[in-house]
Amino acid sequence: IGDSADFDEEVESICPFCGVGCQISLKVKDNKVKYVEGINGPANEGRLCVKGRFGFDYIHHDHRLTKPLIRREDAPAKGLNVDPANWQEFFREASWDEALDFAADGMKGRGTEVAGFGSAKCTNEEAYLFQKMIRQGFGHNNVDHCTRLCHASSVAALMENVGSGAVTATFNQIENADVAIAIGCNPIENHPVAATYFKQFTKRGGKLIVMDPRGQALKRFSSHMLQFRPGTDVSMLNAIMHVIVEEGLYDQQYIEAYTENWEAEKEHLKDFTPEAMARVCGIDAETLRDVARTFAGANAAMIFWGMGVSQHIHGTDNSRCLISLALMTGQVGRPGAGLHPLRGQNNVQGASDAGLIPMFLPDYQSVMNDGVRSAFTDVWQSDDFSSEKGLTVTEIMDAVHEGKIKSMYVLGENPAMSDPDVEHARDALARLDHLVVQDIFITETANYADVILPASAFAEKSGTVTNTNRQVQMGRPAVPPPGEAKEDWWIEVELAKRLGLGWDYASPADVFAEMKLNMRSLDNITWDRLETENAVTYPSLSPEDPGQAIVFADGFPRPDGRARFTPASIIAPDDVPDKDYPMILTTGRQLEHWHTGSMTRRATVLDGLEPEANCSLHPSTLRKLGVAPGEHVRLTTKRGSIEIMAREDRAVSPDMVFLPFAYVEAAANILTNPAVDPYGKIPEFKFSAVKVEAAGVS
Ligand code: SF4
Fold this sequence. Notes:
It is built from 24 helices and 30 strands. By secondary structure, the protein is an alpha/beta fold. A hairpin with a 2-residue loop joins strand 2 and strand 3. The longest helix has 15 residues, at 124-138. It starts with 8 loop residues before the first strand and ends with a strand. Bound molecules: iron/sulfur cluster (SF4).
């Protein structure tokens, strides 16, 4: 933070936190980012939230990795916490040549024993190179990233029923809507700049229907607040659709022109009467009817959803319901109409588009399709690789326990904090023969590393990122990396050379040019255009077209151009409360912290605002426990136990505890359930049975 005139240089780039993708101007003095301002990007129009405005001094934190490190032969056991100020007990400094040789030697020739976790925090080019390295270098598809932990089930449902995994309309289209549903998301905390558009929409008369088991600040702006029982999304949404069918409120013309399987959906919905479903979801029948009439009566309506929808063993079914609701009312492909899963990390959309997924090559092209693989191996000038889907994030950890995977490359992810049942993941990391970690800090995952490669923060490198709106945007370097740290793409290229892959990229622009050869989504989007325009939305229909904010006006990328109704039935959560674990644990983010906290907890203002691990409980629950706000409680599930400061929060129902997941000292994922959705393979982070006690009581 500084005087507005007190800088040497201004560099335009993209906020590295959430998927909104706000454009920023970094004000640089003496090779330091002094402060940040919002600029006129398509997603933010100059606006920023507290993270985007005040969350950047982690870039210059003295914990930054500045040299490659190799684990000492006499180091204490893997997994012990490495003090960033005293890492010499665990690691020794190495030259880049030695560290890269060491990293490559532990992976070379090991085929399916190797797996890779790439990162949604890296650029599109870095994500593309990462998946290419695993596929070309080891001949298989065991490569994944944190999409598996956030919206994999949404993507599974969208691919199945709409034919595309991205949003059908930008969130800014809410300005053309008259009704919107926000379900399982908390935009004021998690997508704060998007939330400003939601608030404006309500101020000009738009009806906002908020659906969430937890109350939230957006409630103040809502026409309806449906605080339904956790895990009952399908019953509530099917009841709403039942009313639309029963009262003939659906759009017959649209259904006939653009969809398939309507009769099966209609038949399926017969049993989901609002009266019966009210007993399941806890929302009275008249409210369900009112919501159905309000949504179906809209001229233009949008549906937004977040991880409250996706992080369930029935996450794909939840999304199927939302897609069906939009299709039966014809609310896709027009201004102010559409489906929008709000993406979490800054580049989770782009990393997924770039093929950092075990079942898809770039642009969601199936690894099982021989023609698709050969199109890529032609460009890569390499041999064919496996046509089998690779292992997902949680399956990779299971495979380590089974002795099938022994060597892992982790770029910018932190599975020792982010995986469900995290002690299982930590145990897996400790069992590896060889772990390469590429990051900007010694993360909890780096505590298990054999070699650590010091990488670059976003403000130190070039590259494109893609936000929740399908907007491909240009990130630019403003300051040099500290010490000997390098840009991630450079590290990947050097590693690939040592794996014998013969890569010869001179810059991220070269990588982007290669990506375009097999990614039709990038047609008409060039590096030069992005340098000039900062952002282009895909699809872009011509070199002049800034891109299509709304897609699927004339049909869908599916057989016969038709979207599909896939009926969904009620499936109970996996780990339901009982007498030993009588309450419900749900996890999520707070406004000030982001993901595993490695960046925001090193940002002075953000950590100052939220310095201590905390959970939220209803006042009546605290009274029953005899715990005052600010005192500690013990949370115990079938996986483990943590002690944590309790906050009073009326937004949480009396049978529930909300637990943010950014705090290593009380890691939420010690408690979470690793059971996964069968389609998206996403864990059920949003629902575990939990016992809550006053700390000190046993
Ligand atoms: Fe950054 Fe998201 Fe905040 Fe925008 S809304 S400033 S992208 S964290």
